[in-house]
Sequence to fold (167 residues):
Amino acid sequence: MFEGSLDLFSNHGYSGLGMRQLASALGVSTGSLYHYFPNKSSLFEGMLRHLATGHVAQAITAIGLIEDPKVRLAVVREFIVSQADRIRAVLWVAIDYRRAMGDAGQPLVAEVFGVYESGIAQHLTGGDQGKAREVLSFVMGVLVHSGLSEEPVDIGPMLQAMDRLAL
Fold:
């Protein structure tokens, strides 16, 4: 349900969807959707949390027991390239939510970005939160740049600069 919700929020924006539209597009009754989520905000918040923690868990699984920091970074770069569209979609909808909700949206966006930042700190930067923030900011910039480009962008080579920030 969360994956389908991401596609809908990506295409219509946070403000552009209601619970009836979400239920219809997801193939569930409005009553069923309300049974699990009392409102659109709780569905959206659950979706963002689920997707962010899922991305981090998938990247950690890909790293496995690799100890060499450079190899760990290479594996994470490959993961980001393979999941770029999904990660970018989370970024887009988080930005849209923050814009739509104003200051009230900041805590959720900070929490979700914090999930990514913590994963980076724990598994790539030796616990250094400052470096983790720089790496996350860099990756977000690459994803935004490639998402706004008129031509397809190979982000793999761009992401290699991440090593200098992380190590």
Notes: The chain has a mean pLDDT of 94. Residues 40-63 form the longest helix (24 residues).
